[in-house]
Write a structure and sequence with these properties.
heterodimer; A: about 270 residues; 2 domains; about 0% strand; B: about 250 residues; alpha/beta; four-stranded antiparallel β-sheet
């Protein structure tokens, strides 16, 4: 048998050797929960944010107006409910509630994805709403003036600009999710915190194990934060532009002759 | 014959914002090839009027006829009508997430559903016309005010509208850049494009307009050729406005 480690670093090394696989698996589950949860949460947020910014003008029909009102009320209720309760409690309610009330036997993992997604969605809905409202109304006017409807205006003009503005907030949410999925240990999702707890229990080496856990969490969040910065930089686009002084389509006859052509057609 | 020439007719147009009456019954018509300049003191309702013409503001009452047909009755979807009535804004409002070229293409590809290549050709045609073809890769925030406004004109023209509305196109520009935009507008006028221009550029109105409309307190106070308006206005309010204007300049 090998001799037992004595110093702190020997223990860390020993635990890594023994439980390396468990740590890796836990980290993968954590990352997966955070990424998928944030992604689906963003989708939910965009849909909710979009619906809440549909303009209701004097031209909107009465039926439509009532419909929008009800949908908006429901969405508001969703946002307030899921922002206003802790995720750890939501996990318990969703996981055990679905079993005892609706007789749905969902896996802990599925419940985990569900809770993270709808929780993030509630926060993202507000972020997206803010992002859309922050865009100059002139952009919407210009889009309307060239004949775009609400959907096209959002899709081509407003959302691309809003997305760039809310990128930092999406990054925030992703990092928060990497850390906060640890609360899912209460429904036995084998994410990093849960795995660490099991590993720590074996030798009663809580400090050493959670030191490792700490490092893993930090490496994950730091990497993600740098990657997001890079993506933000990419979205900015180049700072300079190139003049295009030669274009093959340029009319070889020189000054573009449209006006006269148009006049002749009219006559 | 008369009817064919008439491209826009506005009858008894009213617009209230809450209790405030901004437009109190406006009637006028625009013929093909007309350049109508709308002048008047600030707050008189000029911008509201031009914004009502393409329904960026919904008129409280009154009708707008485009080529003899009531717009609200004929066009269920105002998109189609709006592609025929282009608009240029005081604040340019170029799409800041798109390059100059994309700005001029997006309406054609997304609204008129033209294919990319022909949209590009049309966009380039008008960008050459306004002298911005070299800048197709630039983003709006990299351009000067005058350049932005010229791109905005190209963007509106790229849909090949039958009427172009310009809402104080030079008011947000440094005096240095006003000239380049005005010269594009002059060329468009000479080319026979129908335009309605809200402007404070009296020199432009005098030279290029076929008709000048003076709006005061929500009504048309005077409507006449530029010669009459600027040399011999019938309405004392017009005279007062113009003399105040000349003093200030």
């Amino acid at each position: 048998m090998t001799t037992m480690p004595t110093t702190f670093f020997e223990w860390v090394f020993f635990l890594l050797q023994q439980y390396g696989g468990i740590f890796v698996k836990g980290a993968v589950v954590t990352l997966l929960l955070a990424l998928v949860g944030t992604f689906i949460g963003c989708l939910i947020g965009f849909v909710v944010g979009l619906i809440q910014t549909i303009p209701v003008g004097p031209n909107t029909g009465a039926g439509k107006r009532v419909f929008y009102k009800i949908v908006r009320w429901l969405l508001d209720a969703y946002v307030e409910l899921f922002r206003g309760t802790p995720m750890i409690v939501q996990a318990m309610v969703v996981y055990y509630g679905s079993m005892s009330v609706f007789d749905i036997d969902m896996s802990a993992m599925f419940a985990g994805f569900l809770v993270v997604s709808i929780n993030t969605g509630a926060y993202m809905a507000e972020t997206v709403r803010g992002g859309i409202n922050s865009i100059d109304p002139g952009q919407t006017e210009a889009a309307t003036a060239i004949g775009m409807n609400h959907y096209k205006t959002m899709r081509c003009v407003i959302l691309p600009q809003a997305l760039r503005n809310i990128m930092p907030q999406i990054g925030n949410n992703l990092i928060i999710n990497i850390k906060d999925t640890s609360v899912l240990n209460v429904i036995s999702v084998t994410e990093l915190y849960f795995s660490s707890k099991s590993a720590a229990g074996v030798y009663y080496k809580y400090f050493e194990v959670f030191f490792i856990t700490c490092v893993i969490y930090f490496v994950m969040t730091f990497t993600v934060s740098r990657i997001l910065r890079w993506i933000e930089g990419r979205m900015e686009g180049p700072r300079d532009y190139q003049l295009v002084t030669y274009d093959p389509m340029h009319d070889p006859c020189g000054h573009f002759p449209l006006p006269t052509i148009k006049k002749e057609q009219e006559k | 014959m008369e009817q064919d020439k008439r491209i826009l007719q506005i009858t008894n147009l009213r617009k209230n914002f809450g209790d405030r009456e901004i437009l109190k019954g406006i009637d006028f018509s625009v013929d093909k090839g007309d350049v109508v300049c709308i002048i008047g003191p600030s707050g008189s309702g000029k911008s509201t009027l031009i914004r009502c013409i393409n329904f960026l503001e919904t008129p409280t009452s009154g009708d707008i006829y485009f080529k003899g047909e009531n717009v609200l009755a004929k066009y269920n979807d105002l998109s189609l009508y709006r592609t025929k009535v282009g608009m240029v804004f005081q604040q340019f409002n170029l799409f800041s997430n798109m390059s100059v070229l994309e700005n001029c293409m997006v309406g054609q590809t997304r609204v008129l559903r033209k294919d990319k290549e022909s949209a590009r050709q049309t966009a380039m045609k008008y960008l050459y016309y306004v002298g911005m073809a070299d800048y197709i890769n630039a983003k709006p925030h990299q351009l000067s005010g005058g350049q932005k406004q010229r791109v905005a004109i190209a963007r509106a023209m790229a849909l090949e509208p039958e009427v172009l509305l310009l809402d104080e196109p030079t008011s947000a520009l440094d005096s240095e850049m006003v000239g380049e935009v005005l010269s594009v507008m002059r060329e468009l006028a000479e080319a026979g494009l129908t335009m309605i221009v809200v402007t404070h550029e009296m020199a432009f109105a005098r030279e290029a307009a076929s008709k000048v409309i003076f709006i005061d307190q929500g009504v048309i106070a005077e409507e006449a050729t530029p010669e009459v308006i600027f040399k011999n206005p019938a309405n004392p309010r017009t005279r007062e406005f113009l003399s105040r204007f000349n003093q200030n300049n």
